Amino acid sequence: MLQEGVNPLKKDKIVLYMHAGSGNHGCEAIANTVCRMLPKPAIVVTNSAEEDEAYSLKGLCTLVEEKKIRKNFFIHVYYYLKERLFHDPEAAMRYRFREVTGKNLRNLNISIGGDNYCYDLLLKDLKLANRMFREQGGKTVLLGCSIEPELLTDPDIIDDMKRYTCIIARESITWEALQDAGVKDSTYLIPDPAFLLNTVEKPVPEAFKEGNMVGLNLSPMAVENESVAGITMENYRALIRHILDTTDMNIALIPHVVWKNNDDRTVLQSLYRDFSKTGRIVLIEDCSCEELKGYIARCRFFIGARTHSTIAAYSSLVPTLAVGYSVKARGIAKDLFGTWEDYVLPVQSLSQKGELIEGFEWLKEQEQAVRARLEKVMPAYLERTRQIGKTLGKLAD
């Protein structure tokens, strides 16, 4: 029986943290698949419980929303002073995660933001949370991570990596960089958990020709990373016109993140307006990660900027071109195909508006070979992915 006054959320639990919310369906896919693999129900500490309730995490875990320090001026000032005057940098983190923090906890704390270490703004919080949970007696896991190798030349980051109880890198470029940096103990190479995401098929729009669609995903973030202003949208428009003019395939525009300030639909709606009168292009409405995978799985080809949109395609055996801008796209393609060249078109390298057409034509010419490769490697790849559950299960004992 629990001691009176002890919060039952805090005792020997599995906690998933650094979850940004299901409006990013890649974040949703990671949380969804990890929760299904765990030996007991998890607590997901989320940036937005409202988003998670709206999609596939509802009923799959206990949702606890983070405390928002910056939304309250006085609380923000209080914790700023705690850090500056009392030299307690973790005070704000204890408040942010207070539902799952306390002395002498033996929780298994799993950081599930796969590419969080790719963003400078998140590094401080990641390091503080890792140290805080460890000092409280818990274990910490960095799960499904991608890290730019250059970052692992920073001694402070290396110290942070070595503080984790376990690190699971989702692709070999990150894993090899960790090894080279001396972060070898309890460091594993296991594919992204979202490769195991379930597929849910909803009815398709009238112009959606199952098995003869080109699925397209584009993100504002990809556009922001371009080296030549406007070149990404130019390439997508040229590609759509090329597909409509030279093939009998139709096109599905598929959003994968719908956050207010980072919404795929803003760029996809622009493309849809340009070609909607052809009757051969559809814009898929927002839905859960499992339902989005259902649309992607019924495409013949897929070209995507969001990593987890391409993971949905790969795992559905759909020949895919990633319009990538970071290590995660290159690493995942390299592990699946032995090379990332031809399978990833870095958005930073775009300089001519016909380059995406060239990438699509290569994929079309290699369609059977690429599909055969995915059919060959995917069963073992998925079996390796299931090792996540076994690894986390041992740590949770």
Automatic annotation (TrEMBL):
Pfam families tied to this protein: PS_pyruv_trans
Keyword set includes Transferase: yes
Keywords of this entry: Transferase
Coiled-coil segments: none
Limits of the Polysaccharide pyruvyl transferase domain: 92-326
Molecular function in Gene Ontology: transferase activity
InterPro entries linked to this entry: Polysacch_pyruvyl_Trfase
Name recorded for this polypeptide: Polysaccharide pyruvyl transferase
Species for this entry: Eisenbergiella tayi
